[in-house]
Structure formats: C-alpha cells, structure tokens
Amino acid sequence: MSRQHMMWMQSELESLRERGQYRSLVDSEPRPGGWVIRSGRRMLNLASNQYLGTDLLQIRQELGAFPAGMGAGASRLITGHHPLCTRLEEEFARCKGTESCLLFSSGYMANTGVIPALVGRSDCVFSDRLNHASIIDGIVLSRAQCFRYPHRDLDRLEDQLKKAPRGAKKLIVTDSIFSMDGSMAPLRELAELKDRYEAILMVDEAHSGGLYGEEGQGLVHAMGLTSRVEVQMGTFSKAYCAYGGYIAGDSMLKDYLINKARSFIFTTALPPAVISAVYQSWQSVRGHSVRRDELQRKAEMFRQRLQEAGFDTGGSECHIVPLVLGSNEKTLRVSEKLQQEGVAAVAIRPPTVPEGTARIRFSLMAIHSDEDLKWALERIIRIGREEA
Ligand code: PMP
Questions:
Q1: Is the pLDDT of residue 67 over 70?
Q2: Percent of the chain with pLDDT over 70
Q3: Which of 113, 251, 303, 327 is the most buried (most CB within 10 A)?
Q4: Dist CA 178 CA 198 (whole Å)
C-alpha cells in the first residue's frame, strides 16, 4: 500500500483511539459450562450469544456426523439448492406456524437483502432507533425514505406514519429483543399500527429465536402474532448455535424474495454441512424448554442483583443485561479489570450504541451455574463501584 493511503488509515485509527472507539480482535475458544479462553486466560463467558449453551459437539455425538459438503458449489438458483435446504425450510416453517421459510447465508444478509426487495426509492421505512446495524444497512441499500423513531415510541411512530406520501409502501421494522439493551419491542401495538396504516411489519427475531414459545419459535409466535407479522426474520447463529439466517412468512413472500432479494440470488448457498448442523441443532433446541426457563430465571437474578447494587441495567427484560456506564473510557477500564479477574465482559461503545451510553453487555447462558454467576456478580459489583 502506498504511504499516502497508509497515512489516512493511520490517522483514522488514531482518531478512533482518542475517542475510545478503537477495536481489535481477541482469540476466544469456548470451554464447557459457559467458560471461554480469551488470549490464553480462562474467563466466565458473559458475552456469548449461544444463550442455551447448545453443544454442537455433543449433538454430533448423539445424532451422528453431519453429511460432508463444505461447499455448495453454486447459488441456490443455479445448482446449490441441496435437498437439505427444502427439508429444513419446510419443517422449520411448520414449527413456526408460517406457510414458508427461506434460508439466507446469514442474518446480516437476510436483512440487507429483504428490506431493499420490499421497499424502494419512492417508499418509506419506519425503524426503531436502536435497531441492529444490519437493518440500518438494509434500509440504506433500499434507498427508501427512512423515519427513525425513538426507541419503542409508538406516538412518534404514528406521527411519522401519517407523514408518508400517498401511494408509498410503508415498512415498519423492529428487533423483537434489542441486542444491546435487552429490551422488547411492543409487538402487539406495532401490529395494530401497521394494520391501521396498511404497512408491512418486519420483526428481527435474532435474539428471541429459540428462546420463546413452547419449542422456541420466537416472540412473535409466543405472543400469538404469527398471522399479523408479514416478515419474520431470524438467525441460526445465536441460540441455535450454528450459522445462517432465515425469513419466515407467506409462500408469496418466499416466492417474491427468491426472485428479488439480491443477497439471496447473488451468493453461494450455505454449505450442506452447515445446513445439516443447523437442522440438528434446531431439533435439539426445540426440546430445550427447561433451559429456556432456566435462562430467564438466571437472568432475572443477575439483573436484580445489579439493580439492587445501584447499577443501571437500561431497559433489560431478558437474558441480555447491559451495565450502562456512559463514557467509553470508564467502560473500557471496567471491561479490562473484569477480564483480568476472569469475567469475559466486553465493552460496547458507539457507534454500536448511542453516544454517551457505552456499556458492558452481559448475555447469560442457560448452562452458567448459579455459583459461577454469583462469583462473577461479586467481581462486577466491586469493580463497578471502584470505577464509579
Ligand atoms: N439482527 C440482529 C438483531 C443481530 O443482533 C444480528 C447479529 N449480531 C443479526 C441480525 C445478524 O445475524 P448474523 O450474525 O446471522 O449475520
């Protein structure tokens, strides 16, 4: 690279460092019981999205090896559409109570492909201000007019819906559980608004898939809203402990997306081995109702303990419990100290969260023991107070 290009990159990196926003990669190897080795140090993993602690190695031992095939060879519309895709899509849709399901290579690709397929230049998107980056990127790609409403603010959303030009398609899009806050979207009220204003409702179930409903079908299903949410999106990378994204909804939607979603059309299909792993992992997660209950019980205990100690846990209502600290520097110090003491506590800073709301995002796993959690809480509370 030329010196000139090195210089502007260097100066951008320095400015990120000055603002406490510089990020770097840390080697992380999962260990049983919800632990992890990070940079050679053993830590309790309070930063994983494998919320149920589903163990793919164990599933493999129980159910046998996944079929070979680490390359699909082509996109789904060419020759990459392995019969395993059809099986997973049909059975998964049946479980969720939708007519159909369509696999994407990742949740990020589902959001960046589906939103531009649904709305374009002369349409409007209404997006909760705390929605995930992949939703924001999907909106940018769609070129639709974007109205960002304050977090869960239904009055502001309604004002914005009234401003949409006549004839414009309207898409309301929301996370079901907000990834950095652990708060929940008011799904019932959103469904009412979308009916009133003839909008489409799209719900990202990345952090609720596998965790709500009798078989982990997600929050939309658990709240009895399946027929009222046109587009359910999710990922197999979190509670399902595998990889890949999906869209669930009517057959017409699936047919439309196969023809219009560019991130579906123009990429190689997921490897058959991954689809097989997703299938087996999903089967295992369906039966994990005890773990689902355990996860929420542990999260409730964890959150309450932090609140009693006077900490700000934001709007958390689930297994994601932020410790909102405010400044980037303070958050980095707390994260560093906690990691030194064996708690994997990762600093989340802008632009992932709004300026001035830097935090440690704790995410619990059903397999964390009560003793380990109490051990971690003692350290979090002590270090949090030292840095207050
Ligand atoms: N939506 C939300 C709310 C997410 O948190 C994530 C992952 N961080 C995604 C979508 C993207 O999913 P994937 O990791 O499968 O790309």
A1: no
A2: 97
A3: 113
A4: 25
Looking at this protein, which amino acid is placed at residue 252? M
Q: Identify the three-state secondary structure at position 16.
A: helix
Please report the atom of ligand 1 found closest to the CA of residue 237: 15
CATH superfamily of 24-52+289-386: Aspartate Aminotransferase, domain 1 (3.90.1150.10)
| Dist. CA 93–CA 95, nearest whole Å | 5
Q: Which CATH number fits domain 70-286: 3.40.1000.10, 3.90.1150.10, 3.40.50.1820, 3.40.640.10?
A: 3.40.640.10
pLDDT tens, position by position, 249-279: 999 999 999 999 999 999 999 999 999 999 9
State the distance from the centre of ligand 1 to the C-alpha of 371, rounded, in angstroms.
30
Q: Is 372 in the pocket of ligand 1 (CB under 6 A)?
A: no
pLDDT of amino acid 69: 75
**Pocket flag, ligand 1, residue 179 (CB < 6 Å):** yes
